[in-house]
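User: Good morning. I'm curious how zinc ion would be positioned relative to this chain. Could you predict the structure with it bound?
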Amino acid sequence: MAITGISTQIMIGKTEEETFSRKEIETRIRKAQDLLGIKRLLFWNAGEESNFDLVLDICLQTGMEAYCWFPVAADLMNREVMAAESIENITGTRGYGRAGRWPKLGRGEEKFLFACPSHGEIHDENSALLGRLLDKHPFTGVFLDRIRYPSFADGLESLFGCLCPDCRRAYEDDNFKISWEELRLRQEEMFHFFRNAAAVDWAPLTQWQKLFEAFGLSDFYEFRYRRIERLTGIYTTEARIRGRKVGLDLLSPSLSPMTGQDYPRLSRHSDWIKVMSYCYANGPAGIPLEAGSLLRGLKALNPALSDAEAAAITGSFFQTSITGTPEKLLRNGVPAEYLKQEVNRAAVGMPDRQDQLIPGIEVVNHPFFTPPVKKNQLTAYLDVLDSMDCETVICWNILYIPEEYQMMIKQRMNP
Ligand SMILES: [Zn+2]
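Assistant: Good morning! Here's the predicted structure, ligand included:
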């Protein structure tokens, strides 16, 4: 058993342009390619236009497939998302929720403020931008990121969105059985449950679909899936009409349903999927942060829950044992075996498309990222990947993956 292929990601923005010379960027990419025989390089250019030629020329010369790593609903390339264009949640406000929200949200370069998936103008403009990038540059494909509703890191109120007028129209056009007014009443009941239910009431409901069913909200659960599939289709069309491939960046199956991402449906639009079951990352999509946000969110909405009870409910949703505080979870992460468990979970629903699934692992160790991924954590990941006999995407930014780590990965690859 071994790792059968490596892809990686590179993001070049202001920080990277100030930190590295162009020559240094080139050297780092070429070195990684020499060592690991990188199959796909996923490139987000948040800096100078000339970076496109720099990176794409290296890809063409070395036989790497270049993918345009493209943000769909948050952190757009050419404009900010305004709060007024973002998800309207159960409290009637737009923008981030409050309960369990990641305290650092909105402070870094990445805002994770999500545009409503039904917003016409934003997605017309943004998908047209993708089309222009593909016309201009010889990318093999697109790698779509942030195709979703907000996750727990944005605050739990967002689970009940989007409730904006555009979404209401879309919902009513889809001829669901229950009316919008009835839907809102049922949502209020579910929100009441979040604020009042005892731990024992949660026990039979710790699967997302079951929870929504229990409150008669299956239609809304379905609606969110449909909105995200439709949105994905808008962007993948830009790639397909130009004969390009499509990769998708999807959240770990334990939380993807709550962001409207359904693996089986979305796999119909893609050639491959990166599964983001990050066991250590202290940022959105990372299991420690997302599970910690759910835990803190449950407590914030219902202070009567004890820490241990909120941890147990969270652990049931994530299908892993969570003990201790969110701070401890952030420090220690979850065991690397969780990655395998989650990839298997995704595979169950898509038996004929399992070969699309490629686990991503975070491998950065650089002062910009806290905490850095430690050597023993990487070893644990590599042991798991070994046993899975699969490809992997090493994240996020090849510029910050130490050579020593790249050597460790190399040793686990097929000769
Ligand atoms: Zn909306």
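The two ends are 11 Å apart (CA to CA). The first strand starts at residue 5 and ends at 12.
Let me know if you'd like a different ligand tried.
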